[in-house]
């Protein structure tokens, strides 16, 4: 067989027919391809003769491709096959594109067709080899289908690099023609020199004698036995003449066996010296017996295909139009859509409409073609999703809720002082700060200045409590100590002390305008400053310690309390009002809340990109609720599914109180809730990164896992235990699961009272054997599953763990897509449900955990898992 792959180096005139002026460097090859039909093959003639061709279809490049070169190639190939050229009827996905007829002319070829194969150009500008597969399908008037494939590969040229590659015959360092080495680096033929050539006459007389005598005898007996005998005897004889004679003889009889005998004798003689005689004898005997029936099996199996709606498409409509076509139609066929017969038109297409169920969400469309006389059945299936959707890369509005109660703030408060690193009295009242300037007494006899010399305190604490519309943030400073220096008419030191200084502030929490993933804390007005047991006394010795002067100075510094108070207020107030700068306390609270991150830990745990920009922040008398939009995206690896949208369900954002919403009414510190829409984004991302994609090679029969073999499967599906089909019961088998649609939670309770209902649709399950890449497929099914999902708090991992209920047989629906072993399809449901049902509990571990946000190093502990309104929620304490 000739190779079906042709390699061409760009610009090689032997294979690249690109006429463009820059054909050597325009990063493409143009191949010349001709279409030939009804070709006589000398390897099998005259036993096998071509008949005719009725229809033609281009399978590859895909007619749906948007690549300009593919569009041009498909159009060129279709034009070469259609009216005006070969004259055939051209189909595209079962729809007639060009109306032609049946052509029986033998060895008929079209003119060459330009097929463009662009090189693959990297971002760096470097060109790489690229291939294009041409795959065509022709169908005879009898329904026999022939599919042919050819691969055309264009490679960057190496010509001109002064190195003769193995695919070149020369390389002179350029790509010029006319210098004995052409643009493709092949030797050019030398220009012939005219000479006088004497005439020469040669009169050969060839003689070839071939005798073929086939005999065919059909019968109709109950068995089928093939027997083939091949005998070949060559004989070589040299003679001085050559003649050719061919005599075919064909004799049909009605005897009960089928016998085919072919004898071919070739004799070739050439004068004057050599004689070649080849005698070849072939004897083939085949006996075929079968039980005649009143039905006929088509030569090419009919197929039914759905063209719309698209598999996995979303719609909010109450109905959907359905269209498709039949390939290789046969008399007596019946086509149904979801069990309802439809009319197949003359061009083998059909159209109908079906109603869609909103509560079901997944709405399968099953096209089935049956032939009652033979029991033949074939199917195609797509699933339409009834409901709203969130496009890949879009946000689920208000998808995540984070609640911090006042008890949660109480747990956080001990770590807040470490965040207020710039809260330092040395900064608050730096040395040299003038507290009183040029104060005069006794008629101007005594004038003094009072300046801070040092200031410190023992410790401080922060108390945060939510109120209606704001958060109170109060700071308590313990053991305040300020030493002042009095200068002017006198020189002495005065120490001011207070047991406590209270700084009372109110704050509003809003999304940060520059990055809504974080909280912006704005101080409402100036803080209030109060002192407990404010005192002062002179330190050291000097005139200030005398009664008269001391009384005078005491009268002067009596105003220091209000002065120190003003100093605290000026330091702690918002420096630019509503501007971007924050007060020290607001900054400390903002830093604390920044440490309560949803995006980081959850995004890291699920292996996806999680974004939760804040939508709103609401303060009430018992806590603060952070309302976030949610977007979960990922980059699927090669070969993984890549879905364009996820299922969305409108739900009311929850409200929270100081206790859990169930009958127990348990107090809690923190709650985290996720909407149905956001959770479905999570499921979509998980499937795109490998969830549900697995090969099952073991099965639990009740006493632990055992390897999945033909013998084990034979317990459930009898055909696998048939020694004629599977002589080795230990043949390793596998069930390959591949998702085609992302699973969803519906927003409803599970079938057995679980927190949520989980649905999986059109998960393909294929039973295979053999090494990866060259497996044999025996059964392929589409699996729909309904089960329940629960949440639990894992104290060891600090995550929300998922638990899936093992579905029962009634919760699993199987639709056979391919049945290559002829098993009883009505029994498959109960047989395979036991195996597939074991898969879903194990998926819980594949889902991983939904980590709880970090709270400044505090350890969360579970209180309750349930709901917050319509959202799934977990309630926690902080320790």
Give the helices and strands, then pairings.
Blueprint: E1 5-9, E2 28-33, E3 36-37, E4 55-60, H1 68-81, E5 89-92, E6 95-98, E7 108-109, E8 113-118, E9 120-121, E10 127-128, E11 130-139, E12 145-155, E13 209-212, E14 215-216, E15 245-248, E16 251-252, E17 259-270, E18 274-285, E19 303-308, E20 314-315, E21 319-327, E22 333-337, E23 340-342, E24 349-355, E25 362-371, E26 376-386, E27 388-391, E28 396-405, H2 406-412, H3 425-428, E29 434-441, E30 446-456, E31 459-467, E32 470-488, E33 492-511, E34 519-523, E35 528-532, E36 535-539, H4 547-557, H5 560-572, H6 584-594, E37 596-597, H7 599-606, E38 609-611, E39 614-619, E40 623-633, E41 645-648, E42 670-674, H8 676-688, E43 694-696, E44 698-700, E45 705-707, H9 710-716, E46 734-738, E47 744-745, E48 756-769, E49 776-794, E50 799-804, E51 812-819, H10 828-837, H11 839-847, E52 849-851, E53 854-855, E54 860-868, E55 871-878
Parallel strand pairs: 1-12, 4-5, 13-15, 14-16, 20-26
Antiparallel strand pairs: 2-8, 3-7, 4-11, 5-6, 9-10, 11-12, 17-18, 19-21, 21-24, 22-23, 22-25, 25-26, 27-41, 28-40, 28-42, 29-30, 30-32, 31-32, 32-33, 33-34, 33-35, 33-36, 37-53, 38-40, 39-40, 42-55, 43-46, 44-45, 46-48, 47-48, 48-49, 49-50, 49-51, 50-52, 54-55
